[in-house]
Amino acid sequence: MRFLLSEDQEALRDGIGNLCSGRFPMERVRAGLDPEGWKELAAAGVFTLGELGGMADAAVVFEELGRALVPGPLVWGYLAGSDEIVTGYDPATGVVEHLDHTTAVYVLGDVAVERVEPDALTVTPVDRPLDPLTPIWRVEGTSRGEPAGDADEWRLKGAVLVAAQLTGIAGAVTELAVAYAKERRQFDKPIGAFQAVKHLCADMLARTELARATVHAGAVTLDDDQTGDAATRRAVHAAKVVAGDAAVANAKTCIQVHGGMGFTWEVDAHLYLKRAWILDRWFGTAGDHATSLGGTR
């Protein structure tokens, strides 16, 4: 099976990529969630894409958003089809992100998704979140809300979209590591000329391409089967596992390629790693999906 993008999908990818590079430079990303930036994404149709396209198109878009490290509860906005800032709460995680900017919270239940007001949650802020660009609150309780969707469908779609973001991160840190390996010189040579560094970068590329193919497979399979049969679930589980592994492993390798500089606040590598760790928790961890993958037939 081949997962080549159509001309329309290539145009979509390039358009969102250009939007991200032009409107979300790293200086703006480091400032955190920007309501004006959310409006720009909404105007580009990111959150209402589901009304016109399927998961295959959405995966293309969210890979670019992940590559640019755009902050915010983006997947929840897509699932809710909302141009306003909304977030979600999965009891499996115990936390909710970006509660300070949101107009509504979507709570994932066992069967249904419920929409509640932000003040319906009893929360405690986490003073030092792992990802400085993703503020989180620990949820201690929540009130009942209005039915807003099917929880199983949201979990499957959410897992694929988060996997797409993770794939974007895997690709971004690969490019970051390669660029540094070409610039940094040791013994009068770029460090990228040394075989050990070449192998590190080659492995990063291989992980990224495998993740992209797996995510596209999950998205296409989900488009073809909305009922979520065993084959569809396997494809979704695989996408989350492979993409999560690629993003975390590549981000760690990027820091390694940067050497001592990689651990500093000024170098962006640590932000990608922290975001990858956070995204791994949303809609099931890689461990959760690996366990589920082993149990599907």
CATH architecture of the largest domain: Up-down Bundle
- Name the CATH superfamily classification of the largest domain: Butyryl-CoA Dehydrogenase, subunit A, domain 3
Reported for the largest beta sheet, the result is: 4 strands, mixed
Number of domains: 3
Beta strand %: 5-15%
Question: How far apart are the termini?
Answer: 21 Å
Could you explain how this protein is built, in words?
This protein is an alpha+beta fold and 297 residues long. The protein folds into three domains: 72 residues, no CATH class; 66 residues, no CATH class; 144 residues, Up-down Bundle (Butyryl-CoA Dehydrogenase, subunit A, domain 3). 56% of the residues lie in helices and 13% in strands. The strands form three sheets. Strands 1-3-4-7 form a four-stranded mixed sheet.
Q: Could you list some keywords that capture this structure?
A:
297 residues; Butyryl-CoA Dehydrogenase, subunit A, domain 3; four-stranded mixed sheet
Secondary structure elements and pairings:
Blueprint: H1 7-23, H2 26-30, H3 35-43, H4 55-67, H5 74-80, E1 86-89, E2 95-97, E3 104-108, E4 112-116, E5 121-125, E6 136-142, E7 146-150, H6 151-183, E8 185-186, E9 189-190, H7 195-224, H8 230-258, H9 269-281, H10 286-295
Parallel strand pairs: 1-3
Antiparallel strand pairs: 2-6, 3-4, 4-7, 5-6, 8-9
Helix pairs in contact: 1-4, 4-6, 4-7, 6-7, 6-8, 6-9, 7-8, 8-9, 8-10
Quick recap of the structure?
α1 runs parallel beside α4 and α4 packs antiparallel against α7.
